[in-house]
Each structure stands twice: as C-alpha cells, then as structure tokens.
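Checked the freezer inventory, then went back to the computational side. Two predictions to log before the end of the day. The first one is the construct we discussed on Monday; recording sequence and tokens without edits.
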Amino acid sequence: MKGTRWIRAAAVVAVLLASMPAYAWRFDLGENTNLNVAALIQFQAQFQQNGAPDKTAYSKDFYLRRVRLLLWGDVWKGISFFVDTEQPNFGKGGNWDVALYMSDAFMTFKVADQFMVDVGMMLLPFARHGYQSAPGLNGLEFHLGLLRYVDGSNKSLRDAGVQLRGYVFDRKLQYRLGVFNGAQGCNLQKDSSGAVEKDVAGKTALMSNPEDWPRFAGHLRYNILGTETEFFAKGITFGSSPTLSIGTGFDYQVAAVLRTPTVFNGDRTVKTRGTMTDSIGVSADVFLDVPFGRDKQHEIVFMGAFFYYDHGNELVYDAAKNPVVVPSRNSGAGFLAELGYRYTFIEPVLTVDWFDSRQAAQDLLVVKGGLNFWIRNAAVNIKTEFGAEKRGDLAHAPWIKAFTTQAQLFF
C-alpha cells in the first residue's frame, strides 16, 4: 500500500510539472497591463584540475552557478519592462559571501516593430552571443574568453544606457544602436606590487576617460531564414522551421585605455604625464538552427563568431621590476565555434574558443565536448561538459582539464 501511494504521489507531481508554464507565471492586472514572474536556478558540480586550495589536486565544488528572480511585463500599450537579480557562484570554493545584485533593469518604449527605445541596464549589443541570456544558452556557459570589454565598462556583460532597436524589411533586418556609460575613472597604472601609482600630491597617475565620454555600441543582423525578434537571443530554438542569420557589431569608447604611462621623477613629481587612447571592438557572426525529420525530432545548431579588439597598451614589470609598456592582453583577434545535434531530448555539443593576443604569451585555446538532456527545453534540463584549455604560450602551456555538470530549472 505504501509503495502504491508513493507511485500515485509521483504521478501527481509529474502531471503538475507537465502543466506548469514553461517560462513564467503571468498575471493580468488590467487593460494592457500584466506581470510575468519567473525564477532561474542553476546548480553545478565541477571538478577542475589544479582547482583545489593546494593548486595541484582537482577541485570538487558543488555550488549554485546562478540564482535569479525575473520580473517583466507590460505597463501600457507600447510600454514594457524587464528586471532580474543575480547571485552568481554561490558557494563556489567555499565562498558564501556572494552579493546579490541587480543584473538587468530596463524599460522599453515601442512605437512600432521598426522603432523601439530601451532605457536602463542591459546586455550590450556588441555580438549576438553577447546578448544571449544564460537560461537560453546551448552550451553550458558563455564564451567569456572572446567577449572582452574594457575593464570597468560593464557588470556581467551589461552597461547602463539608451538603445534604439527595431526590425525592418519584414522583420528580416534587425538593428541595435546604443549609447552607454562605459569606462570612467578606472586606474590604468599600478606599480610592481599592484598598488595604484600616485604623484607627490596623492593624485592618481592615470585614469580612464577623464572627460567622461559615453560608450557607443551597436549590432546589425540579417535573417536569411526565419526571424529573430526576441530581446535575448536564443542558443537553440526548438522550433519548427530553420533559422539562418548573420550579423556584425562594434564597441567603441573614447580615451578608455592606456597609450603611454606617466613617468615620475625621483621625488614623485610628474616628469611626463601619461596618455589614453580609444578602445575598439568589432564582431561578425553567424547562427544556424535547422530542425528536421518527423515531428522535428532532429535539430542541427551552429554558432560561429569572429572578434577583433584594440584595447591599447598596459604596463607590466619584468623580473627586475622595471616597467615595460606592452600591447594589452585583451587586444587581438579570435573566434568561437559551437556545434550541436539534437535528437529528441539528447544533444551532444562541441565548442572551440581561440584568441591570439597581441601581448606575448597571453593566448587562449579552449576545447569542450558536452551532452545536453533537454527534459523540458530551456525550462528543465541537465548539461554535462568535459573541457580542456590552454592559456599563455600555447606551444608550451599545459592543458587544464575540467568536468562540469549543471541542472537548470527555469519556471
């Protein structure tokens, strides 16, 4: 009898889960007014080579990769909002002092599909992968080694500003163009011990963007097949028709990075005041999603992107602690590729990241293979991934291996 009761209870729970909204709870509050409430929980177990406190053994971490509360909806005709919180890596490495902060917080004023204005804190429109949302990724994580924004210019790939957005030519062409806060007042010069350098009067040697110029970023995208009209791009569509799109983007900031450092006399008076230069980032990418077969049980997904950055120079110190000006480690070019094949609810995924830094011995190579289990598409899934990466001089750097598994609940 007890066994029968447990079976019945499990069946009831399964029915309830199956009847839950896939992504949110919606409340209609009046004419043209509604509120959607959702939560995201991502639990990860990770075992990383040299990741233990002794720097030699594998780490054995169990932690909450992301916990989010999401609120969005319509206030009136053409006026909507989106707000979510973030608490990342809660408990990773035994660290429970992880602050909860506001991640996205923006309003949208829609005149027509062809013209909308987004105002607030939002993902930057630099590359399609850059304005994806974590719950909708196809791979287990973002390709953060290729999304290289200037220090102090973003919070988790986001910045505050105003963005114009629209879909024209039968929604085939999408544009995003924004003016954002950008980097300002960041210390660009430190001594060999890592302390900020100051002159005899205590004034910081060199700071970014002293005149507080805004940052400009944008993205232009054309859909050869299908349409993509969501604010957050999808990593996999689970759709019934193919999607093929290409895009290009840019990220530009005035006086955001170092060109030459300040040179001091022995008494810490300034001999030569340092200078800043502009930073630029350029991206080009392609996204392909092809569902096929009976009931669209098969799906091929590919994402590829190229990036180029010029982030000026940085000051480093040699073995004798002499200052040396070298190109920024974030300057250079690279690409990412992500390929997946889904059959019903199982999808193997292969990803490759490569970045060729203009600074010597600061390159990156990452190769990962994963297996996704789409229990309920983006709402409920399990992802596993084995990866290896090299950083530095790729010809001699060792491979650092890691195994990660993640359970996601988005409801």
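The second is the one RB wanted added to the comparison set:
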Amino acid sequence: MFRKQLAVLTLFLFTFTLFPTISYSVELTLETPSAILIDATSGKVLYEKNSHARRAPASVTKLMTLLIAIEAIKEGRGSYDDIVVASENAWRLGGSQIYLEPGEEMTLKELLIAIAVGSANDACVAVAEHLYGTHESFVEVMNNKAKELGLKDTNFVNSYGLPADGHYTSAYDMAQIGREALKHEEILQLTSIKHYRLRENTGKPFQLDNTNKLLWWYPGADGFKTGWIGEESGFCLASTAERNGLRLISVVLGAPQRKGNFRDSMILFNHGFASYIFKEFMKEGQEIAEVKVGKGAQDYVKAVTNARVGLILPKGREEGISTRIEMDPVITAPIKKGQVIGKISILKENEPIKKFDIVAKEGVERGSFWRQYKKLIKDILDFD
C-alpha cells in the first residue's frame, strides 16, 4: 500500500507524425487587398496577405460588439430575457437596422440576434446602452478588450461600423477577435442563424436574413459577420468553418467586387482544409488518472485535460512525434477545482513543442485531524 502511494504515474506515449512547423509557401489568387487564414486552436497563421494593414471593417465591427455583450452577460450585467427599451439615440441610426422606435421594448436576446443576423445598427446602440449605460462607455470597453488581446492595429469609434475617423482594424487583429469569440459558444449559436422573424406577435413581423452566404455555400461554415459601407471598406467578411476537428478562421477586408468577400474566403478555407489536418490526442475534459491526495478530505482527485490536446499538421508530410504526461504522485490538500496539477507535452525529437495543462476535476478540502490520524494508523498497519 505504502509503495503504491509513492509510485510515479506511468507516462502515456502516442506516436504520430509531424512535419517541421513551417507553412507552405503558396500564392493564392485573391482580389481582396488584405486577408488572413489561421488555425483557431493554436492561432498559427496559415496564409496572410497584408494582414496588418489598417482598414475600415464596416459591420465586421459587430463581432467585437457581440463578444463584449456576451461577456457582459456572463459577468452579470444583464440576461438574455432582459427587456431593453430603445432610446432616441438608437432610433436615429441609419444603415442596416430593424427600425426601432423610441420606447419600443425588445428582449436582449432578440437584439443580439438582430445584430448577428440582420447587422442592425440601432440594435447595437440599444444593447450598448442597456449593458453599459451609454454607447460611449460600451465602445471604451471594446477598445479595452482590444488592448487586452494585444491588438496593435485596431481602434473602435462606434459599435456598429459606420464610417468614422479613427475607426479601423486589420485582418490579423480581427482574426484574434474571432479566436476570442470562439470561447463563447453563444456567439456561434447567434451567427449561425440563417433566418429569424422579429416582432412575430405584434402583427408586424420583421424578417431577418443572414448576410453571411457561406452558411449556405460552404460546408462547415457557422460564423461570423459580413461588412460593407461602400468603397471605403469594400466587401468584408470575418468567418469560421470546421471540418473533421480542424477549425479555421478567415478574414478578408476590402474585396472590390460584390460577393468577392465570399469567393476569397472560400479560397482561403479550401487551401487550409486541403493542406492541413488537426490531430487530436485527447479530448477536452478527458480523465487522465486518479492522483493520490495527501492530508485531504478524500484520498484521490481526478486529473483531467482543461482543453483539447492536439496539433495542426500539414497533410502528407509527417515524422514521428510523441506525447508525455507529467504529474506528481501525491498532491497535498487543499486543492481547488481547476487547479493545475500536471502537464501534457507534445514532443518532437524529445523537445517540447506544445504544452497543455492537466487540472483537478473537483476541489478537495483539507481533511480533519481525526481523519488524518486514522489514515496514518491504517498506513502503518498496511505497511509491508
């Protein structure tokens, strides 16, 4: 029994293949002046073209708007069932809109759908004011989030993307916003809605049709947002698609031709899915082992992955790699739920190229003095 407590956890090895981490050097025929394709999991850039150029994003801005709104809801600033009262500020907005009237009431969830599906500018202002008091305060939070994400080529002046001096982003920065948005499944749920009818019970229903045609045209596409405000922005699209566990994010800004944003996005996705695969070693939340707990209210704690463990690989050009699990044989209580208690390393030629945390599935309180005393006596009696 005593020797079992001191035993080191067995290393788990899986042999797969990996080509050195370089991207294929390819030239894609894109009309768009600024574009990028990344792996959503790792952030690895798979293709880029002037990806740091600052450009007017038009309604692609609303991806950040949705992100800030969802985060505010999760922080307790609102709930989907909140009744939002439209202000005159919202009513005055032009461009894409749902024609809110001053004093009109609508749920927060319906307004988020109007933003995601119908690109409604007035809904952006109504949501901003409801969650942060003023539209200006909401935009400040958008810019603070951009700084938090380390975005160097982004500045927002409004939440809806209409032309304004100093309102810009880049394809690279918007792809990073997309990665952050994917942390919230609610955003994909909203942006993947193809049709929605507002005011259904008022006798004056308003039809919303998603402007992201990739939802129909490209298998695996389920987000995010289109944008266009004339020649200043061109046709823009931040989008994401998933196939066989590989999720990609594409951003094109400034396509000169109508539907050119869709055409170029599909070219980017085709390149990504044809050239790469995602090799999954372990699923998120997968149990790795039961680890001995010292001085705890229970004897063992389950160790699980806190994220999907995997790697993007170029197709058809593989060499052997392995994974290694490292954990202490005993962890002393108290232990918090989600506490890091080990590491999973993906190795190439015995050199770590990527690491993932192993965490405690549940918390373990420190055991009482009497419990620890009884365990000590039992261990002494079991000692051989």
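For RB: The chain is about 30% helix and 30% strand. The two ends are 8 Å apart (CA to CA). Let me know if you want it refolded.
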